[in-house]
Amino acid sequence: MPMKRAPILVAVLAEPRRMAGLDRAAWQLLLRQALRANLSASLHALAVEHGVLDTVPASARAHLAWAATLAARHLQAVDWEIRMIGQALAPLGLPVLLLKGGAYAAARLPAGRGRLFSDIDILVPRAALPEVESALMLHGWIATHHDAYDQRYYRQWMHEIPPMVHARRDTAIDVHHTILPLTARARPDPDTLRAAACAVPGRPGVQVLSAPDMLIHSATHLFYDGEFGKGLRDLYDIHRLLQERAGDAAFWEALPARARALGLGRPLYYALRYSSALLGTPVPATAQAAADAARPAPPLRWLMDQLFRRALMPDHPSCGGAAARLARALLYVRGNWLRMPPALLARHLFHKAVLSPRAEQVQA
């Protein structure tokens, strides 16, 4: 998808200084797309970072200011929640190893500026899950998904236990023991990820994944999943993480090798391909060539281009219409196919489509 045909939000994320030349009508469309993509506060952060906030029309600037205020409050809440999780896990001698948005926020990475998210994800050893769950319950978090099938689905097949919500604060935490379902085709070793984790300066007991692992996990979360409603935001995460390491030769050398070692070369290939193509992320030729070893065959690559280049656009009526909806639907099927073997997938879809609705009707 050439940049001249890209939605205005994609064009601005790729070249933030374009904001300085937008008129009111363009801003109205940009803000609507950003709202649907959960990127309004990120636009404010980019406008400040690139010195163009003063050029924004007053009404649009007020909207961005509101989004920035919300993001600041969100960051305060995240900091507090991380502290509370740390208190819960301290007696177990476990660090708070944060994933995704919580990691970007805690480490104050550029990818975390203006980023909003609904829950905090942590990674713990699988053997410690019972103790971790009990410790969190003692500190006010309660389990969700009480249906017997859902409990089995999470605990036997998934990469996390059912989400937990705090009884008073209504904040959510996802406790992972690895980064992909146990039934997925790829099986990255979580012990390897934890062993390479890094401490967050100024936050005792808080860790994040190493820079290569953080990028690989972000790529895996996006390109192994089947949900693309916020796909552009997740691709923007990848863009910002790669931008931050633009001049780090050691990072770029380690990245493809690390992805291969974890069995995640394909999602890294897609991450570099679409971040570069859609957002203009500078990727060294040597790193791209190394990642290309995991590329799919030409027919499949063409098909994935048609799907991803549509599904990764903002989920807004101005960005693709029926073609984008079809792409997201097909990628949803693909995501489930990658995460479960056929027999289990058929059983799971039948249960969720037929048996669960019946059970809900009986309870009602």
Q: How would you explain this protein's 3D organization?
A:
This protein is an alpha/beta fold and 364 residues long. The chain has a single domain (3-363), classed as Beta Polymerase, domain 2. 59% of the residues lie in helices and 7% in strands. It has 16 helices and seven strands. The chain has helices at 8-14, 24-37, 40-49, 58-89, 100-106, 129-138, 148-157, 190-195, 211-223, 231-244, 249-262, 265-279, 285-291, 298-311, 321-339, 342-363, and strands at 96-99, 119-123, 141-143, 164-166, 172-176, 198-199, 206-208. The chain has a seven-stranded mixed beta sheet with strand order 3-4-5-2-1-7-6, covered by helices on one side. β6 and β7 (206-208) form a beta hairpin. α9 (211-223) packs across α11 (249-262) and α10 packs across α12. The chain is globular and about 55 Å long. The mean pLDDT is 91.
Strand order of the main beta sheet, please?
3-4-5-2-1-7-6
Supply the CATH class.
Alpha Beta
Euclidean distance between termini CA atoms: 48 Å
Give the averaged pLDDT, no decimals: 91
What is the CATH architecture annotation?
2-Layer Sandwich
SSE succession: HHHHEHEHEHEEHEEHHHHHHHH
Overall structural class, as computed from helix and strand content, comes to alpha/beta
Silhouette: globular
Q: How many strands appear in the DSSP assignment?
A: 7
Could you list the spans in which at least 5 consecutive residues all have pLDDT below 50? none
Q: In this structure, how is the largest beta sheet organized?
A: 7 strands, mixed
Number of domains: 1
* Percent strand: 5-15%
CATH topology tier name: Beta Polymerase, domain 2
Give the helix level as a range of percent. Answer: 55-70%
Number of continuous helical runs? 16
Rg computed from alpha carbons, rounded to a whole number of angstroms: 21 Å
